[in-house]
Design a protein that fits this description.
Largest sheet: 3 strands, antiparallel
Number of strands: 13
Distance between the termini: 99 Å
CATH class of the domain at 448-543: Mainly Alpha
Helix content: 40-55%
Strand order of the largest sheet: 3-4-7
Number of helices: 23
Length: 544
């Protein structure tokens, strides 16, 4: 058959492939520079799984000085939601992704939305038909279903291949007749594979894998002129000069088919990295993290809780390479950009998503931040998510910054804040509006007389920490407590308790808690009137 003539029959008035190869030339890249892309479908909101899927190519492209591309794969328009593309771009922007080329900021390889590239796909489909590596198929949906039923009855493999490939050997005249009759057609790959033979494939994450050759004549172009994923990604990744393709490992079984498309075009094959999904432990089983079942899968979960974007990105880095976490802990002055990530250190079976670990990472992140920055960001967070506390934050800047600075600039800074909503929880006792009652179990040694005596006769806000503590020790014998903890431990029968119990009385009375940051610094944040109010409240609490 004259395949060029067939191509002209199927695709009249379609540009030749050379037009697009010239329009989209190879990039001028430095040695080692990688071009990677994230290619989501606009079928919903970005979730933690897709955030990780975008994080991987962004990291690997930018650490080589390359480019990260956002391409929208919207050829399955039945599943597309309203504002789907805008949602994706907004979420990536919110999570600080640096996108070098996209539908928004364009680039030399535009358009970056697949439905806008239809003419390109038609051109490449025409080319592959002209090479004798693809053909039109006029089978109806009913015929395909009947074929599958027969295959199931015979226990044959399901697919359009061999004796089941009804349209594979149509003559030019038969095809022309069907075209003239207005029959719809799809374009199928004319596979050259032998299912009984094997191919070896090297994946950047999973290593060497073995598959049977592809012998299925898969659909390359649908009857509406738009391609399924396989054909589209080969065309787009070649024209955009993608050097490494990262994608979900659900595509692993499609490798033989996709490789055959690359080979049919005689294009160099990029490297592939198939990424396992994020998983979650549920009882004794491990399953895929679900955007429907798991609230922590939604990125909105972290926004509402107030976990910073940078902390989420740090956690994603630990999922990307497990040795990142230790490196980050050992290098407090470094950032993600300073670490060299590697594909062969990614989890082959799937990274376990651990919310507690994310929160711990976030605590470390907060411990390294400046108090002024935490204050500013808390103000922004509360303006959206907690209007009442926003007013308190806005009107108590100095007090909050002073609180946040306690035990911060020291070798082992405090790690009690994991998210912006924690600021309210950790500071509530500083504000009359939030501290309305004691919610702590009474202990026998809690004594309002000790408290009143201490603040009336001993406490001075201007004392140094050493003098402040010496005065508490001075108070101890008066009420039968040991001034030194070691004395109490040696002879507990001689004392009601030790200096630590006196400190607990003061701490609980002022804050309602047995654990807080440095008590000396905390007391400085209370006014005289607040102290008097707390003494009164504490007395009422003990006499109830």
């Amino acid at each position: 058959m004259d395949y060029k003539k067939l191509a002209d029959l199927l695709f009249p008035n379609v540009e030749n492939i050379e037009y697009y190869l010239k329009k989209y030339p190879k990039r001028e890249k430095k040695e080692g520079e990688e071009i990677l892309r994230f290619a989501p479908s606009p079928t919903g909101f970005i979730h933690m799984g897709s955030l990780f899927a975008a994080f991987v190519p962004e990291i690997f492209s930018h650490q080589t000085g390359g480019k990260f591309i956002l391409r929208i794969e919207d050829t399955d328009q039945k599943r597309e939601i309203e504002n789907g593309i805008e949602n994706i771009i907004r979420d990536l922007k919110n999570y600080k992704f640096i996108i070098d080329e996209s539908p928004m900021n364009k680039g030399k390889y535009a358009p970056y939305i697949q439905t806008q590239r239809k003419d390109i796909y038609l051109s490449f489909a025409k080319y592959i038909v002209s090479k004798g590596r693809a053909y039109p198929c006029f089978c109806s949906e009913e015929e395909i279903q009947n074929m599958r039923s027969i295959q199931q009855q015979k226990k044959d493999r399901i697919g359009y291949y061999g004796q089941y490939a009804k349209c594979r050997n149509l003559t030019y005249e038969e095809i022309e007749s069907k075209i003239n009759n207005g029959e719809k057609f799809v374009i199928r790959l004319k596979s050259q594979g032998d299912f009984n033979k094997k191919i070896i494939f090297n994946d950047l994450v999973k290593g060497k894998m073995e598959f049977p050759e592809n012998d299925i004549d898969h659909i390359l172009l649908k009857s509406d002129g738009l391609p399924p994923y396989a054909f589209a990604h080969v065309v787009d990744d070649h024209l955009m000069d993608i050097t490494t393709i990262t994608r979900a490992d659900e595509y692993v079984s499609s490798i033989p088919y996709h490789l055959e498309i690359w080979q049919a075009f005689e294009f160099p094959v990029p490297r592939y990295a198939h990424i396992a999904p994020l998983t979650k432990k549920e009882g004794t089983t491990i399953r895929k993290l679900s955007k429907r079942k798991d609230p922590e899968a939604a990125v909105s979960y972290y926004s509402e809780l107030g976990i910073p974007v940078d902390a989420v990105r740090l956690y994603l880095a630990t999922l990307l390479n497990s040795d990142f976490e230790m490196w980050y802990m050992q290098n407090p002055d470094k950032t993600i950009k300073d670490f060299e990530f590697k594909f062969n250190k990614m989890s082959v079976g799937g990274s376990l998503f651990d919310l507690d670990k994310l929160i711990n990472i976030s605590k470390v992140y907060f411990s390294k931040k400046k108090a002024e920055d935490i204050y500013k960001e808390t103000l922004e967070y509360t303006s959206e998510y907690d209007k009442d506390f926003y007013e308190i934050v806005k009107n108590n800047k100095d007090k909050l910054i002073s609180f946040l600075n306690i035990e911060r600039n020291i070798p082992r800074p405090r790690k009690d804040i994991s998210c912006y909503s924690d600021v309210k929880k950790e500071t509530s006792y500083l504000f009359k509006e939030l501290f309305t009652e004691y919610q702590i179990e009474k202990k026998p040694f809690y004594d309002a007389n000790i408290l009143e005596d201490y603040f009336t006769n001993y406490y001075n806000v201007n004392d140094t920490k050493e003098i402040w503590f010496s005065k508490i020790k001075e108070l101890c014998p008066k009420y039968g407590y040991a001034s030194e903890t070691k004395d109490y431990k040696q002879s507990p029968e001689k004392y009601k308790g030790s200096v630590s119990d006196i400190c607990e009385i003061i701490r609980v009375a002022m804050t309602g808690r047995t654990m807080t940051p440095d008590l000396y610094e905390i007391l400085k944040l209370f006014t005289n009137d607040q102290i008097k109010d707390r003494i009164k409240m504490f007395n009422e609490y003990l006499t109830k």
